[in-house]
TrEMBL record:
Keywords: Glycosidase, Hydrolase, Membrane, Transmembrane, Transmembrane helix. GO terms for biological process: polysaccharide catabolic process. Its EC number is 3.2.1.78. It is an enzyme of class 3 (hydrolase). Residues 74-348 form the Glycoside hydrolase family domain. Belongs to the glycosyl hydrolase 5 (cellulase A) family. GO terms for molecular function: mannan endo-1,4-beta-mannosidase activity. This is mannan endo-1,4-beta-mannosidase. It comes from Vanilla planifolia (Vanilla). It comes from the Eukaryota. InterPro entries: GH, Glyco_hydro_5, MAN-like. It catalyses: Random hydrolysis of (1->4)-beta-D-mannosidic linkages in mannans, galactomannans and glucomannans. The chain crosses the membrane at residues 6-30.
Amino acid sequence: MLKGHGLVYPIIGLASCFAFIYMSFGDLAFQFMEKKMSFVEREGVRFVVDGKPFYVNGLGLRVCRTWAFNDGTYNALQVSPGQFNERVFKALDLVIEEARKHRIRLLLSLSNDWKDFGGKAQYVKWAWEAGLSLSSSNDSFFSDPSIRNYFKNYIKAILTRRNHLSGLQYRDDPTIFGWELMNEPHCPSDPTGDTLQKWIEEMANYVKSIDKKHLVTVGFEGFYGPASPEKMKINPAEHFNKLGVDFCRNSKVAAIDFTSVHIYPDQWLPQGTDQEEKKRFVSRWVASHIEDGQRELNKPVLFTEFGFSSKNKNFSESHMIEFYKHIFDIIYKSAVKKGAGAGSFIWQLVEGGMNDFRDEFDIDVRKRPLLLGLLKEQSCRLAKISNGMF
Ligand SMILES: *[C@@H]1O[C@H](CO)[C@@H](O)[C@H](O)[C@H]1NC(C)=O
Ligand SMILES: *[C@@H]1O[C@H](CO)[C@@H](O)[C@H](O)[C@H]1NC(C)=O
Protein backbone atom coordinates (compact mmCIF):
# COMPACT_ATOMS: atom_id res chain seq x y z
CA MET A 1 0.00 0.00 0.00
CA LEU A 2 1.32 3.43 -0.71
CA LYS A 3 -0.85 5.80 -2.60
CA GLY A 4 -1.49 9.48 -2.53
CA HIS A 5 1.15 10.55 -0.05
CA GLY A 6 2.23 14.14 -0.27
CA LEU A 7 5.70 15.20 0.74
CA VAL A 8 6.96 12.70 3.19
CA TYR A 9 9.85 12.39 5.55
CA PRO A 10 10.91 8.77 5.52
CA ILE A 11 13.71 9.02 8.02
CA ILE A 12 11.76 11.04 10.53
CA GLY A 13 8.98 8.53 10.16
CA LEU A 14 11.31 5.69 10.97
CA ALA A 15 12.64 7.51 13.96
CA SER A 16 9.09 8.02 15.19
CA CYS A 17 8.41 4.35 14.76
CA PHE A 18 11.31 3.55 17.03
CA ALA A 19 10.27 6.17 19.51
CA PHE A 20 6.92 4.48 19.68
CA ILE A 21 8.42 1.05 20.05
CA TYR A 22 10.71 2.29 22.73
CA MET A 23 7.90 3.95 24.65
CA SER A 24 5.99 0.70 24.63
CA PHE A 25 8.72 -1.82 25.24
CA GLY A 26 11.85 0.12 26.08
CA ASP A 27 12.68 -1.43 29.41
CA LEU A 28 12.42 -4.93 28.13
CA ALA A 29 14.40 -4.03 25.06
CA PHE A 30 17.26 -2.72 27.16
CA GLN A 31 17.58 -5.93 29.12
CA PHE A 32 18.80 -7.56 25.95
CA MET A 33 21.18 -4.89 24.83
CA GLU A 34 24.26 -6.69 26.01
CA LYS A 35 23.66 -9.82 24.01
CA LYS A 36 25.04 -9.70 20.49
CA MET A 37 22.45 -10.18 17.77
CA SER A 38 22.67 -13.13 15.43
CA PHE A 39 21.49 -13.28 11.85
CA VAL A 40 17.98 -14.51 11.19
CA GLU A 41 18.10 -17.74 9.22
CA ARG A 42 15.61 -20.11 7.73
CA GLU A 43 15.06 -23.76 8.52
CA GLY A 44 12.33 -25.23 6.34
CA VAL A 45 9.15 -23.22 6.83
CA ARG A 46 10.36 -21.33 9.90
CA PHE A 47 12.70 -18.49 10.73
CA VAL A 48 15.31 -19.29 13.35
CA VAL A 49 17.78 -17.30 15.41
CA ASP A 50 20.55 -19.25 17.11
CA GLY A 51 18.70 -22.39 16.06
CA LYS A 52 15.47 -21.44 17.86
CA PRO A 53 12.18 -20.51 16.17
CA PHE A 54 11.64 -16.81 15.56
CA TYR A 55 8.22 -15.29 14.86
CA VAL A 56 7.72 -11.81 13.55
CA ASN A 57 5.20 -9.59 15.17
CA GLY A 58 4.95 -6.27 13.42
CA LEU A 59 4.46 -4.31 16.59
CA GLY A 60 7.44 -3.22 18.26
CA LEU A 61 8.87 -6.21 19.55
CA ARG A 62 11.24 -7.67 17.11
CA VAL A 63 10.98 -6.61 13.52
CA CYS A 64 10.00 -3.43 11.70
CA ARG A 65 9.53 -3.26 7.93
CA THR A 66 10.59 -0.05 6.26
CA TRP A 67 12.04 1.51 3.12
CA ALA A 68 15.72 1.62 2.24
CA PHE A 69 15.05 3.74 -0.84
CA ASN A 70 13.92 7.19 -1.80
CA ASP A 71 14.61 7.80 -5.46
CA GLY A 72 14.74 11.25 -6.93
CA THR A 73 12.05 12.86 -4.75
CA TYR A 74 12.07 15.08 -1.68
CA ASN A 75 14.95 14.15 0.64
CA ALA A 76 16.05 11.52 -1.88
CA LEU A 77 18.66 8.98 -0.87
CA GLN A 78 19.44 8.25 -4.52
CA VAL A 79 19.46 11.65 -6.20
CA SER A 80 20.18 10.29 -9.67
CA PRO A 81 21.42 6.86 -10.78
CA GLY A 82 24.34 5.92 -8.54
CA GLN A 83 24.48 9.38 -6.88
CA PHE A 84 23.63 9.49 -3.18
CA ASN A 85 22.87 12.17 -0.67
CA GLU A 86 25.31 11.47 2.17
CA ARG A 87 23.16 13.32 4.71
CA VAL A 88 20.23 10.99 4.01
CA PHE A 89 22.49 7.93 4.02
CA LYS A 90 23.72 8.96 7.46
CA ALA A 91 20.12 9.16 8.61
CA LEU A 92 19.52 5.61 7.40
CA ASP A 93 22.68 4.58 9.27
CA LEU A 94 21.18 6.12 12.39
CA VAL A 95 17.89 4.28 11.95
CA ILE A 96 19.73 0.96 11.74
CA GLU A 97 21.93 1.80 14.71
CA GLU A 98 18.95 2.83 16.86
CA ALA A 99 17.19 -0.38 15.85
CA ARG A 100 20.22 -2.39 16.94
CA LYS A 101 20.32 -0.64 20.30
CA HIS A 102 16.73 -1.63 20.91
CA ARG A 103 17.19 -5.11 19.51
CA ILE A 104 14.77 -4.52 16.70
CA ARG A 105 15.49 -6.01 13.31
CA LEU A 106 14.62 -4.31 10.04
CA LEU A 107 13.11 -5.79 6.91
CA LEU A 108 14.38 -3.32 4.32
CA SER A 109 12.76 -2.79 0.96
CA LEU A 110 14.93 -1.68 -1.97
CA SER A 111 12.44 -0.16 -4.41
CA ASN A 112 8.80 0.58 -5.06
CA ASP A 113 6.30 -0.30 -7.72
CA TRP A 114 4.23 2.75 -6.75
CA LYS A 115 5.39 6.26 -7.49
CA ASP A 116 5.80 7.12 -3.80
CA PHE A 117 9.45 7.87 -3.02
CA GLY A 118 10.25 7.64 -6.71
CA GLY A 119 9.53 4.04 -7.54
CA LYS A 120 10.01 2.28 -10.86
CA ALA A 121 8.66 5.31 -12.75
CA GLN A 122 11.59 7.38 -11.48
CA TYR A 123 14.11 4.86 -12.82
CA VAL A 124 12.35 4.94 -16.20
CA LYS A 125 12.41 8.73 -16.17
CA TRP A 126 16.14 8.71 -15.46
CA ALA A 127 16.72 6.39 -18.39
CA TRP A 128 14.70 8.68 -20.68
CA GLU A 129 16.63 11.70 -19.47
CA ALA A 130 19.88 9.86 -20.21
CA GLY A 131 18.71 9.50 -23.82
CA LEU A 132 18.33 5.72 -23.68
CA SER A 133 15.87 4.27 -26.12
CA LEU A 134 13.27 2.24 -24.31
CA SER A 135 9.55 1.65 -24.15
CA SER A 136 7.69 4.37 -22.28
CA SER A 137 5.99 1.75 -20.11
CA ASN A 138 7.01 1.92 -16.48
CA ASP A 139 7.42 -1.84 -16.71
CA SER A 140 10.61 -1.27 -18.66
CA PHE A 141 12.04 -1.06 -15.14
CA PHE A 142 11.91 -4.87 -15.22
CA SER A 143 12.97 -5.48 -18.81
CA ASP A 144 15.37 -2.75 -19.92
CA PRO A 145 19.02 -3.81 -19.45
CA SER A 146 20.25 -0.29 -18.61
CA ILE A 147 17.61 0.16 -15.92
CA ARG A 148 18.35 -3.27 -14.52
CA ASN A 149 21.94 -2.12 -14.21
CA TYR A 150 20.87 1.09 -12.47
CA PHE A 151 19.01 -1.03 -9.96
CA LYS A 152 21.89 -3.45 -9.48
CA ASN A 153 24.19 -0.52 -8.81
CA TYR A 154 21.70 0.65 -6.22
CA ILE A 155 21.57 -2.77 -4.58
CA LYS A 156 25.36 -2.87 -4.42
CA ALA A 157 25.59 0.62 -2.92
CA ILE A 158 23.13 -0.25 -0.16
CA LEU A 159 24.54 -3.66 0.68
CA THR A 160 28.12 -2.43 0.82
CA ARG A 161 27.34 0.84 2.61
CA ARG A 162 29.54 1.17 5.69
CA ASN A 163 27.43 2.49 8.55
CA HIS A 164 29.29 5.53 9.89
CA LEU A 165 28.06 4.76 13.45
CA SER A 166 28.65 1.01 13.76
CA GLY A 167 31.48 0.71 11.22
CA LEU A 168 29.69 -2.32 9.77
CA GLN A 169 28.73 -2.73 6.15
CA TYR A 170 25.01 -3.27 5.84
CA ARG A 171 25.61 -6.74 4.41
CA ASP A 172 27.40 -7.73 7.62
CA ASP A 173 24.84 -6.28 10.00
CA PRO A 174 22.53 -8.76 11.78
CA THR A 175 20.19 -5.89 12.70
CA ILE A 176 18.90 -6.27 9.17
CA PHE A 177 16.32 -9.06 9.08
CA GLY A 178 16.44 -9.32 5.31
CA TRP A 179 16.07 -7.59 1.96
CA GLU A 180 12.90 -7.08 0.02
CA LEU A 181 13.48 -6.46 -3.69
CA MET A 182 10.45 -4.24 -4.26
CA ASN A 183 7.28 -3.14 -2.55
CA GLU A 184 4.32 -4.74 -4.39
CA PRO A 185 5.86 -5.38 -7.85
CA HIS A 186 3.36 -5.63 -10.73
CA CYS A 187 4.25 -6.12 -14.37
CA PRO A 188 0.91 -6.04 -16.19
CA SER A 189 2.63 -5.49 -19.55
CA ASP A 190 3.60 -9.18 -19.42
CA PRO A 191 0.75 -11.17 -17.86
CA THR A 192 2.54 -14.47 -18.62
CA GLY A 193 4.76 -13.59 -15.68
CA ASP A 194 7.98 -14.35 -17.55
CA THR A 195 9.37 -10.82 -17.32
CA LEU A 196 8.92 -10.49 -13.58
CA GLN A 197 10.17 -14.04 -13.02
CA LYS A 198 13.43 -13.26 -14.86
CA TRP A 199 13.83 -10.00 -12.97
CA ILE A 200 13.34 -11.74 -9.62
CA GLU A 201 15.87 -14.45 -10.51
CA GLU A 202 18.42 -11.91 -11.66
CA MET A 203 18.02 -9.50 -8.74
CA ALA A 204 17.75 -12.09 -5.97
CA ASN A 205 20.88 -13.80 -7.26
CA TYR A 206 22.63 -10.48 -7.50
CA VAL A 207 21.84 -9.72 -3.85
CA LYS A 208 23.18 -13.16 -2.90
CA SER A 209 26.36 -12.59 -4.90
CA ILE A 210 27.14 -9.66 -2.59
CA ASP A 211 25.47 -10.76 0.63
CA LYS A 212 25.14 -14.40 1.61
CA LYS A 213 24.16 -13.70 5.18
CA HIS A 214 20.76 -12.08 4.82
CA LEU A 215 17.42 -13.50 3.80
CA VAL A 216 15.86 -12.23 0.58
CA THR A 217 12.20 -11.92 -0.42
CA VAL A 218 10.35 -10.38 -3.35
CA GLY A 219 7.91 -8.05 -1.57
CA PHE A 220 4.62 -8.85 -3.26
CA GLU A 221 1.00 -9.18 -2.15
CA GLY A 222 0.62 -12.84 -3.07
CA PHE A 223 -1.53 -12.83 -6.21
CA TYR A 224 -1.66 -16.14 -8.03
CA GLY A 225 -0.78 -16.28 -11.72
CA PRO A 226 -0.94 -18.59 -14.73
CA ALA A 227 1.56 -21.10 -13.35
CA SER A 228 -1.04 -22.06 -10.71
CA PRO A 229 -4.27 -21.82 -12.75
CA GLU A 230 -6.36 -23.69 -10.17
CA LYS A 231 -5.43 -21.10 -7.54
CA MET A 232 -6.31 -17.99 -9.51
CA LYS A 233 -9.89 -18.25 -8.26
CA ILE A 234 -8.58 -17.44 -4.77
CA ASN A 235 -7.43 -14.02 -6.04
CA PRO A 236 -9.80 -11.26 -4.93
CA ALA A 237 -10.98 -10.54 -8.50
CA GLU A 238 -10.14 -11.56 -12.04
CA HIS A 239 -7.95 -8.60 -12.94
CA PHE A 240 -5.45 -9.66 -10.27
CA ASN A 241 -4.72 -12.72 -12.44
CA LYS A 242 -3.11 -10.49 -15.05
CA LEU A 243 -0.59 -8.45 -13.09
CA GLY A 244 2.38 -10.48 -14.28
CA VAL A 245 2.86 -11.73 -10.72
CA ASP A 246 2.78 -15.44 -9.97
CA PHE A 247 2.95 -16.23 -6.28
CA CYS A 248 4.06 -19.87 -6.33
CA ARG A 249 6.29 -19.69 -9.38
CA ASN A 250 8.04 -16.49 -8.21
CA SER A 251 8.44 -17.77 -4.65
CA LYS A 252 10.15 -20.95 -5.83
CA VAL A 253 13.19 -19.07 -7.10
CA ALA A 254 16.07 -20.64 -5.17
CA ALA A 255 17.57 -17.31 -4.07
CA ILE A 256 14.22 -16.28 -2.52
CA ASP A 257 14.33 -17.42 1.11
CA PHE A 258 10.83 -16.60 2.25
CA THR A 259 7.68 -15.27 0.71
CA SER A 260 5.21 -12.51 1.52
CA VAL A 261 1.51 -11.75 1.46
CA HIS A 262 -0.48 -8.54 1.91
CA ILE A 263 -4.16 -8.46 2.96
CA TYR A 264 -6.45 -5.61 1.84
CA PRO A 265 -10.01 -6.89 1.41
CA ASP A 266 -11.39 -3.34 1.67
CA GLN A 267 -9.55 -2.29 -1.45
CA TRP A 268 -9.49 -5.55 -3.37
CA LEU A 269 -13.09 -6.76 -3.05
CA PRO A 270 -15.99 -4.92 -4.71
CA GLN A 271 -17.43 -1.87 -2.97
CA GLY A 272 -20.12 -2.79 -0.51
CA THR A 273 -18.78 -6.26 0.32
CA ASP A 274 -19.91 -6.92 3.88
CA GLN A 275 -17.78 -7.82 6.87
CA GLU A 276 -18.65 -11.52 6.83
CA GLU A 277 -17.70 -11.89 3.20
CA LYS A 278 -14.43 -10.04 3.82
CA LYS A 279 -13.64 -12.38 6.67
CA ARG A 280 -14.29 -15.37 4.47
CA PHE A 281 -11.92 -13.95 1.87
CA VAL A 282 -9.26 -13.34 4.51
CA SER A 283 -9.55 -16.90 5.82
CA ARG A 284 -9.13 -18.37 2.35
CA TRP A 285 -6.32 -16.00 1.38
CA VAL A 286 -4.26 -16.51 4.51
CA ALA A 287 -4.83 -20.27 4.78
CA SER A 288 -4.09 -20.85 1.11
CA HIS A 289 -0.73 -19.09 1.29
CA ILE A 290 0.30 -20.80 4.50
CA GLU A 291 -0.50 -24.09 2.82
CA ASP A 292 1.61 -23.09 -0.22
CA GLY A 293 4.49 -22.35 2.13
CA GLN A 294 4.20 -25.78 3.64
CA ARG A 295 3.32 -27.99 0.70
CA GLU A 296 4.75 -26.37 -2.37
CA LEU A 297 7.51 -24.01 -1.32
CA ASN A 298 8.95 -25.25 1.97
CA LYS A 299 9.54 -21.60 2.90
CA PRO A 300 8.15 -19.27 5.59
CA VAL A 301 5.25 -16.99 4.68
CA LEU A 302 5.34 -13.54 6.21
CA PHE A 303 2.23 -11.33 6.17
CA THR A 304 4.14 -8.14 5.52
CA GLU A 305 1.15 -5.76 5.29
CA PHE A 306 -2.46 -5.84 6.27
CA GLY A 307 -4.98 -3.18 7.12
CA PHE A 308 -8.59 -2.32 7.75
CA SER A 309 -9.88 0.85 6.11
CA SER A 310 -11.34 3.59 8.25
CA LYS A 311 -13.21 4.69 5.10
CA ASN A 312 -15.36 1.58 5.18
CA LYS A 313 -19.06 2.18 5.07
CA ASN A 314 -20.40 1.44 8.55
CA PHE A 315 -16.86 1.55 9.97
CA SER A 316 -16.86 0.41 13.56
CA GLU A 317 -14.05 -0.29 15.96
CA SER A 318 -15.52 -3.67 16.75
CA HIS A 319 -15.31 -4.66 13.07
CA MET A 320 -11.75 -3.46 12.97
CA ILE A 321 -10.78 -5.44 16.05
CA GLU A 322 -12.55 -8.49 14.69
CA PHE A 323 -10.54 -8.19 11.45
CA TYR A 324 -7.17 -8.00 13.23
CA LYS A 325 -8.03 -10.76 15.64
CA HIS A 326 -9.10 -13.01 12.79
CA ILE A 327 -5.71 -12.66 11.09
CA PHE A 328 -3.70 -12.95 14.29
CA ASP A 329 -5.57 -16.12 15.24
CA ILE A 330 -4.87 -17.84 11.93
CA ILE A 331 -1.17 -16.97 12.13
CA TYR A 332 -0.92 -18.05 15.75
CA LYS A 333 -2.61 -21.37 15.02
CA SER A 334 -0.15 -21.99 12.21
CA ALA A 335 2.79 -21.15 14.46
CA VAL A 336 1.57 -23.50 17.21
CA LYS A 337 1.52 -26.31 14.65
CA LYS A 338 5.03 -25.35 13.46
CA GLY A 339 3.48 -24.23 10.17
CA ALA A 340 4.67 -21.71 7.60
CA GLY A 341 2.82 -18.66 8.99
CA ALA A 342 5.78 -16.66 10.27
CA GLY A 343 4.20 -13.47 11.59
CA SER A 344 2.65 -10.22 10.46
CA PHE A 345 3.15 -6.49 10.11
CA ILE A 346 0.27 -4.06 10.44
CA TRP A 347 0.06 -1.42 7.76
CA GLN A 348 0.64 0.96 9.38
CA LEU A 349 1.48 2.16 12.86
CA VAL A 350 1.80 5.91 13.27
CA GLU A 351 2.09 8.32 16.12
CA GLY A 352 2.13 12.05 16.70
CA GLY A 353 4.18 14.05 14.20
CA MET A 354 3.60 11.58 11.37
CA ASN A 355 0.71 13.35 9.68
CA ASP A 356 2.33 13.17 6.27
CA PHE A 357 2.24 9.39 6.45
CA ARG A 358 -1.38 8.99 7.42
CA ASP A 359 -3.77 7.08 5.22
CA GLU A 360 -7.04 5.25 5.63
CA PHE A 361 -5.23 2.33 7.29
CA ASP A 362 -3.10 4.10 9.85
CA ILE A 363 -3.29 3.11 13.48
CA ASP A 364 -2.28 5.24 16.41
CA VAL A 365 -2.47 2.66 19.17
CA ARG A 366 -2.62 5.31 21.87
CA LYS A 367 -6.06 6.06 20.49
CA ARG A 368 -6.94 2.40 20.07
CA PRO A 369 -6.46 0.71 23.44
CA LEU A 370 -8.42 -2.38 22.40
CA LEU A 371 -6.13 -2.92 19.45
CA LEU A 372 -3.06 -2.30 21.60
CA GLY A 373 -4.30 -5.02 23.95
CA LEU A 374 -4.74 -7.37 21.02
CA LEU A 375 -1.24 -6.63 19.72
CA LYS A 376 0.29 -7.28 23.10
CA GLU A 377 -1.60 -10.52 23.41
CA GLN A 378 -0.42 -11.68 19.98
CA SER A 379 3.14 -10.62 20.75
CA CYS A 380 3.17 -12.48 24.04
CA ARG A 381 1.68 -15.70 22.79
CA LEU A 382 4.02 -15.78 19.79
CA ALA A 383 6.91 -14.95 22.08
CA LYS A 384 6.13 -18.00 24.18
CA ILE A 385 6.75 -20.26 21.23
CA SER A 386 9.74 -18.25 19.99
CA ASN A 387 13.31 -18.25 21.07
CA GLY A 388 12.59 -16.81 24.48
CA MET A 389 13.89 -13.29 23.90
CA PHE A 390 10.52 -11.90 24.88
C1 LIG B 1 4.65 5.99 -15.26
O1 LIG B 1 4.34 6.33 -13.92
C2 LIG B 1 4.18 7.73 -13.70
C3 LIG B 1 4.02 7.94 -12.22
O2 LIG B 1 2.96 7.17 -11.73
C4 LIG B 1 3.01 8.25 -14.52
O3 LIG B 1 2.86 9.63 -14.35
C5 LIG B 1 3.25 7.91 -15.98
O4 LIG B 1 2.09 8.28 -16.73
C6 LIG B 1 3.52 6.43 -16.18
N1 LIG B 1 3.91 6.19 -17.57
C7 LIG B 1 3.18 5.44 -18.40
C8 LIG B 1 3.67 5.34 -19.80
O5 LIG B 1 2.17 4.85 -18.04
C1 LIG C 1 -24.22 -1.00 6.52
O1 LIG C 1 -25.26 -1.06 7.45
C2 LIG C 1 -26.55 -1.19 6.86
C3 LIG C 1 -27.60 -1.09 7.97
O2 LIG C 1 -27.28 -1.95 9.03
C4 LIG C 1 -26.60 -2.52 6.11
O3 LIG C 1 -27.87 -2.67 5.47
C5 LIG C 1 -25.50 -2.54 5.04
O4 LIG C 1 -25.48 -3.82 4.42
C6 LIG C 1 -24.16 -2.26 5.67
N1 LIG C 1 -23.17 -2.15 4.64
C7 LIG C 1 -22.04 -2.87 4.64
C8 LIG C 1 -21.09 -2.63 3.50
O5 LIG C 1 -21.74 -3.67 5.51
